[in-house]
Write a structure and sequence with these properties.
Elements (H helix, E strand, L loop, with lengths): L5 E10 L2 E11 L3 E5 L6 H9 L5 E8 L2 E2 L5 H6 L2 E4 L11 H9 L9 H7 L1 H5 L10 H13 L5 E5 L7 H16 L3 E6 L2 H7 L2 E6 L2 E7 H5 L2 H8 L9
Parallel strand pairs: 3-8, 3-9, 6-7, 7-8
Antiparallel strand pairs: 1-2, 1-4, 4-5, 9-10
Helix pairs in contact: 3-6
């Protein structure tokens, strides 16, 4: 049988002598999954290890469509078909919205995503296309970061804390966008500490505690289990019906 899209196998990571990941293992055959957990649990380090972003020292295996990623430069990982939306967006203040998108479109492999299609997905960006990255609201910056990643025409989109610092109305719009992308066939690995966002986007929930996947559950089970929410996430239970 073909290997799953993404396989993380016994992945360890250190910053100096401090261990950030310990024997992290999971598979993503397709569709979406969320890695949830409190701050400092290793979620961003997991993203960096998959994408080949320093400075963490890693050991173990990360395979994408059967190809080993450990040891590859970040741009080579991206070229294989993984899009990444980092925590904090990381935009260029000196570049306009349109320059951000066209810079990536000019380097990306041929595929379905173009700046015009990004503007169709996020009409607000079309209205702000001449504005610089620093002139955008938090929600607009997140739209641009997502659009930039989509222009690489990924098969897998990894997003690190996409709801961080955003207003509820913007978060709802992003949830609808992610659901649309999944319906169109894109696989998503969502890194979140916002339980409401994580359970709205995907049913599969991987709970990270102290650098390890401590539990795997479903959105329904997690939403209906207040003790599990408090124990693993340190949050008050979700409101009924969410």
């Amino acid at each position: 049988m073909p290997e799953p899209l993404l396989v993380v196998d016994n992945l360890d990571a250190w910053y100096g002598t401090a261990r950030a990941l310990e024997e992290v293992s999971f598979e993503l055959a397709g569709g979406s999954a969320a890695v949830i957990g409190r701050n400092g649990m290793g979620k961003t380090t997991l993203c960096n290890a998959i994408m080949g972003i320093p400075p963490a020292r890693v050991r173990g295996s990360v395979r994408f469509k059967g190809q080993e990623l450990i040891g590859k430069a970040s741009y080579k990982v991206a070229q294989l078909g993984i899009g990444y939306v980092p925590q904090g967006r990381r935009l260029f203040s000196s570049l306009s919205v349109d320059e951000h998108l066209r810079m990536i479109a000019g380097r990306a492999s041929n595929g379905g995503w173009t700046p015009a299609k990004v503007y169709e997905l996020f009409p607000r960006l079309a209205e702000r296309k001449r504005n610089g990255g620093a002139q955008l609201s938090g929600g607009e910056q997140q739209m641009l970061a997502i659009g930039r990643a989509l222009l690489t025409n990924p098969e897998l989109l990894i997003m690190d804390e996409p709801s961080e610092g955003l207003a509820p109305a913007i978060i709802e719009m992003l949830i609808e966008t992610f659901q649309r992308l999944e319906r169109e066939g894109m696989s998503i690995l969502l890194i979140e500490q916002n339980l409401g966002v994580a359970t709205s986007i995907t049913d599969r929930q991987l709970v990270m505690v102290a650098g390890n996947i401590a539990a795997e559950t479903t959105a329904k089970e997690l939403s209906q289990d207040p003790d599990l929410q408090r124990r693993f996430l340190g949050v008050e239970p979700l409101a009924a019906g969410r």
